[in-house]
């Protein structure tokens, strides 16, 4: 690394990125390129000789950015947000600069220790039970994604129960969740060798805004136990992907615990809101939980990737995931004096991700982070009010956080027709490039999702987005 070249190029790159943010509203939010567009624009082979940074940046501007969907655009309302911030960016930059690989404590003690401290800070901000703190038997770890988080805890839970009932019983193990649970749990089961027929996606209750009813869980567990199966893992969600439904942790947790199941909570998106006292009640009952996950890279101003996972019993993870080859042995690890995060995750290598979360927590402070969340929720409320005032539309589920689920009402009451109408509305709106929204299916109905959460979004963007939606809806309705 030539430090003078870093200084020169680094400044140029920061200028380029700052200009990108200045101009971000001029790009179509959803990239409008066709599949394979880039192969036509770039050479077939790598250059034999070095090129200039200016040439590369020109290609980024002309060839790469048209193929980017601008998640940081203030007009981005699709899926869930994936925040960036100056603090998060600086943390990423520092991590790239130091570029260590912190799999064991010894490979960079600061990386492990900062991660433990920062996750303790965040656990306290969320008022998680003390058992999740690194000072006891549990602790937090940064995974790349919520998908990795649920996989590692599923493996820990599986091995826990197999130690008790014997390895041959693997085909009897049953996993429970609602049909609103993120598909990452299904993938974890596939990887974890859970028999596909023993993955129970229980029907969420449309009358309680798609939360899972404790009775439904209880009945399924009793039925499976009566047939000799072994319930061992239950995942509840706070803020489901489709509609931000909130599963009732307290009642569900009692069932999970009385049946000796590992209880995991996926709060990937909505966990961030729980740092605000007025939203903390959504995770009441977290005392019963074995593992809890939230994505700081979604709605917590921390650049991707940074998924915070806490467990009450770290030994369960370690028993499933540890290896101890000669070439990694060292005094601190052998003496059990330290945490080696390689034993809490799938890969060996790991980045210094705690730096960016630390920077976010320090450069904002909890009060500003709370204000940030509240502002988005207020903006979502505004959008909800605008939709509610227009009789051509309906709000589909009760808004809890910063996602509004809505749909355009058809002129004739026919579900196929309504679904096609909303599908077409989504397509035309997104192809304007002026905003980007996504969709879901709830009870077989095609629903539009408007998720507020990009850091640059202001009231004027909500109003402009709603105007595009109204105009395109009017045009569509006149054609149908
Ligand atoms: N859980 C929920 C509730 C989500 O909404 C998502 C993604 O949006 C995930 C899990 C998966 O997140 P990741 O991409 O971090 O694996």
From TrEMBL:
Its cofactor is pyridoxal 5'-phosphate. InterPro entries: Aromatic_deC, PyrdxlP-dep_de-COase, PyrdxlP-dep_Trfase, PyrdxlP-dep_Trfase_major, PyrdxlP-dep_Trfase_small, Pyridoxal-P_BS. GO terms for cellular component: cytoplasm. The keyword Lyase applies. Pfam families: Pyridoxal_deC. The modification N6-(pyridoxal phosphate)lysine is found at residue 298. One of its GO terms (molecular function) is L-tryptophan decarboxylase activity. The keyword Oxidoreductase does not apply. One of its GO terms (biological process) is amino acid metabolic process. Keywords: Decarboxylase, Lyase, Pyridoxal phosphate. Belongs to the group II decarboxylase family. This is Tyrosine decarboxylase.
């Amino acid at each position: 690394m030539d430090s003078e070249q870093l200084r020169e190029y680094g400044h140029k790159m920061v200028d380029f990125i700052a200009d990108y943010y200045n101009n971000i509203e001029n790009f179509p939010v959803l990239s409008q390129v066709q599949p394979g567009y880039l192969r036509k624009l770039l050479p077939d082979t790598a250059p034999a000789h070095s090129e200039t940074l200016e040439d590369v940046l020109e290609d980024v501007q002309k060839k790469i950015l048209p193929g980017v969907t601008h998640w940081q655009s203030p007009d981005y309302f699709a899926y869930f947000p994936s925040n960036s911030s100056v603090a998060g960016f600086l943390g990423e930059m520092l991590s790239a600069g130091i570029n260590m690989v912190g799999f064991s404590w010894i490979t960079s003690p600061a990386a492990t220790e900062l991660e433990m401290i920062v996750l303790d800070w965040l656990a306290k901000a969320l008022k998680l039970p003390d058992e999740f703190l690194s000072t006891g038997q549990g602790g937090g770890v940064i995974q790349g994604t919520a998908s990795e988080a649920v996989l590692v805890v599923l493996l820990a839970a599986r091995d826990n129960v197999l130690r008790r009932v014997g390895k041959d019983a693997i085909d009897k193990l049953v996993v429970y969740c609602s049909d609103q649970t993120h598909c990452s749990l299904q993938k974890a089961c596939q990887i974890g060798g859970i028999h596909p027929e023993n993955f129970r996606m229980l029907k969420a209750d449309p009358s309680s805004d798609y939360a899972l009813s404790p009775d439904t869980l209880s009945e399924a567990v009793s039925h499976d136990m009566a047939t000799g199966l072994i319930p061992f893992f239950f995942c509840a969600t706070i803020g489901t992907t489709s509609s931000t439904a909130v599963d009732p942790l307290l009642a569900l947790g009692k069932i999970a615990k009385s049946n000796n199941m590992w209880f995991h909570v996926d709060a990937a998106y909505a966990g961030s809101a729980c740092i605000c006292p007025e939203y903390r009640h959504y995770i009441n009952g977290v005392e019963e939980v074995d593992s809890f996950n939230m994505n700081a890279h979604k709605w917590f101003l921390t650049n991707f990737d940074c998924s915070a996972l806490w467990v009450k019993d770290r030994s369960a993870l370690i028993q499933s995931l540890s290896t101890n080859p000669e070439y990694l042995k060292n005094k601190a690890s052998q003496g059990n004096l330290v945490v080696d995060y390689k034993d809490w995750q799938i890969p060996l290598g790991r980045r210094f991700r705690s730096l960016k979360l630390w920077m976010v927590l320090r450069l904002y402070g909890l009060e500003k982070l709370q204000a940030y969340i509240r502002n988005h929720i207020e903006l979502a409320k505004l959008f909800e009010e605008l939709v509610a005032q227009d009789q051509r539309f309906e709000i589909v589920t009760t808004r809890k956080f910063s996602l509004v689920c809505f749909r355009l009402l058809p002129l004739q009451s026919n579900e196929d027709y309504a679904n096609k109408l909303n599908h077409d509305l989504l397509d035309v709106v997104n192809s304007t490039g002026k905003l980007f929204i996504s969709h879901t299916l709830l009870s077989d109905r095609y629903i539009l999702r408007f998720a507020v959460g990009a850091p640059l979004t202001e009231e004027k963007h909500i109003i402009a987005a709603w105007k595009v939606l109204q105009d395109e809806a009017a045009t569509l309705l006149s054609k149908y």
